[in-house]
Design a protein that fits this description.
The chain has 262 residues and is mostly helical. The chain contains twelve helices and no strands. It has one domain. The mean pLDDT is 80.
């Protein structure tokens, strides 16, 4: 097979690691499928992003020169999808879905190495730390109190690391994305008490479309106004608003204020 075809396939796998693909997946899952499962998946993804930044700051292994500045070990582009899709596989417990997740994660690992973004050591380290996080996730969810107070737990985990983040030798965008989204999503889920599971398929499509419209407006607003704030604060506010919109504003407006009447 020609090498350029292999590269195109690799780039296709890496689409599943992009910020926008994850937002689409989790928004559809949370609002249109299963709020509890996809809410948990979002929490563990965001915690993984914070943990990954801390681990990179601990080892400070530089990226390959052609990728610019930054740290490589462990690979965030491997650890975060591993944790997210691994969480979904554990929750759904369906063999067919498990096989798909394994295929996808192997493809992502191959792609990161094939395109020169990470070494095999970076990828292996990401799988190792991601596995530890998934094991801890499975253990803590066996505690009934945690299961019933998950939004409050998420809010606590969003607030506690903020001072430590600014103490790191170098802070990067993903950690502020994670902190902002975790904060906004946790607050919204804590107060959003209108379940969407009783909606018809058409209503769910309307709600998800409405949510995507709001996300697009938020994105456009932040990119065009360029708030006069430090970059880290701006990113934190940006994704806090997106998390709050998805978990609270979009379903609240759709269900309570009856924007749609079908």
């Amino acid at each position: 097979m020609p090498i350029n075809v292999v590269d195109y396939i690799a780039k296709g796998f890496l689409l599943f690691t992009s910020e926008y693909a994850l937002i689409v997946l989790l928004t559809i899952g949370f609002l249109g499928f299963n709020r509890d499962i996809f809410g948990k998946a979002l929490f563990i993804l965001l915690l993984s992003m914070v943990l990954n930044t801390s681990l990179k700051a601990l080892w400070q292994v530089p990226l390959a020169p052609h990728l610019g500045e930054g740290w490589a070990f462990p690979s965030g582009h491997m650890q975060n999808p591993f944790v997210l899709w691994g969480c979904l596989a554990l929750e759904f417990k369906r063999p067919g879905f498990l096989y798909f997740v394994i295929f996808l994660l192997v493809g992502i690992a191959f792609s990161l190495i094939q395109l020169g973004f990470h070494s095999a050591v970076d990828v292996t380290g990401a799988v190792f730390f991601g596995s530890i996080l998934l094991i801890a996730y499975g253990y803590f969810l066996k505690i009934p109190w945690i299961n019933t107070h998950l939004p409050a737990i998420g809010l606590i985990f969003a607030i506690i690391p903020i001072p430590a983040i600014y103490a790191l030798p170098k802070t990067v965008t993903p950690v502020f994305i994670a902190e902002g989204a975790l904060l906004g999503f946790s607050i919204g889920w804590l107060y959003q008490n209108h379940p969407t599971t009783t909606l018809s398929p058409l209503q769910k499509i309307q709600l998800i479309s409405f949510a995507f419209l709001g996300i697009a407006v938020i994105q456009l607003g932040f990119y065009t106004t360029r708030l006069q704030l430090p970059y880290s604060i701006s990113v934190l506010c940006h994704y806090c608003l997106i998390g709050f919109w998805i978990s609270f504003c979009a379903p609240q407006l759709y269900l309570k204020r009856k924007i749609f009447h079908l």
